[in-house]
Write a structure and sequence with these properties.
mainly alpha
Amino acid sequence: MSQTEIILSIVIAVIIGGLAAFLMWKQRQQYKQDVAEEKRMDAETLKLQLQAYERLILLAERIALPNLINRVNLTGMPLQDAQYLLVSTIKQEFDYNVTQQIYVTPQSWDAVRNLKEQNILIINQVASFLPAEATGKDLGKSILEMLAQNPNAALHTVATEVLSFEAKKLLK
């Protein structure tokens, strides 16, 4: 082997070694960037999840029947109009927050959905027992009386407890 071949072999070996070292360094840098991006994404996801729980707790409070009846003006309204207004308000509030389900557990979303359905059922059932000439004020009063007699019928407390529990698990 001539001296030129030896030098050429050494140069090729140094180039290959340098290229391998560069590729390993580049791969390590990419790994560090990927880990940093994953941590950033985890932090953003956690933030979105917590915001979703906050919004759903607010939703549960807004569609809680005592709060809803106090917020919506039923005075001077016929029974059917008041019934429609209460039910449509619950549906609108729910629809406005429907996208939050992608950030929360299925149990949390079920609690919110069940609250919505139960409140609509209560409104419709109470309205069906009132005379046709009853007013919106009568409907609101009857619903509040029914809830006072049956505190377990108020599912909003259970829903907010489920949501709060799930949110607190994220913070640990």
